[in-house]
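pipeline stage [seq->struct] | target=Ltp family lipoprotein | organism=Microbacterium schleiferi | residues=237
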Amino acid sequence: MDAAVPAPSKRPWYTRKAVIIPAAVVVGLIVIGGIGSALGGGRSTSDAAPAASVRTTEQAAATTEAEQVLIIVPNVVGMDGATARTVLETLGIRVATDGDESMPVIAQDVAEGTEIEEGATVVLTLEEKPQLTLGQQNAIRSAQSYLDFTAFSRAGLFEQLTSEYGEGFEAADAEFAIAHLEQNGLVDWNAEAAESAQSYLDFTSFSRQGLYEQLTSEYGEQFTPEQAEYALTAVGY
């Protein structure tokens, strides 16, 4: 006969509930803590951001006035449009124009000496660019073609454009074409003289005096004495 297995002893109620009671207390604390966080936004009063300072109307107006920069408008009438734009924009003034900025400024809508805020706009009126006649257009193209082909003095190019054995342009159109090249930086007479001198030396021998005379003679290249001297220096004489 097997030995009797002793029945498990029953623990007192307070021993069996010893774990349950603290757990319930912990749950209660968590619930209470969650409610507190929800009501307080998860931050204590000491962690809340400080209220933003509010400026008075007088303070805001004083700050705005202090930040304004006033600029005295200069006189740019007579300058070409591009130069006038550079002058004004360097000062912090905006510029508006209504034409070709290579032409002179004939008026400005804000008078010289007027104080305006930085970033304000000044409107410039430019001289209207003249329309070229057909003769002037063709004379310019012809003059440029000759200079691209070989060296010319101013007088020599004028003769080539107007000669009955050359292009036969009206003298006024030829003069206009040459002036146009000069004003737009499309010709350098010193460089033309140097090129002419070098081409003579490439062809045959010349003394310094002989080359000078060839460059300046009315029957030769017709460069000015100053241009001829520049050319002689350039070729090594």
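stage status: PASS
auto-comment: DSSP finds ten helices and five strands in the chain. The longest helix spans residues 20-40.
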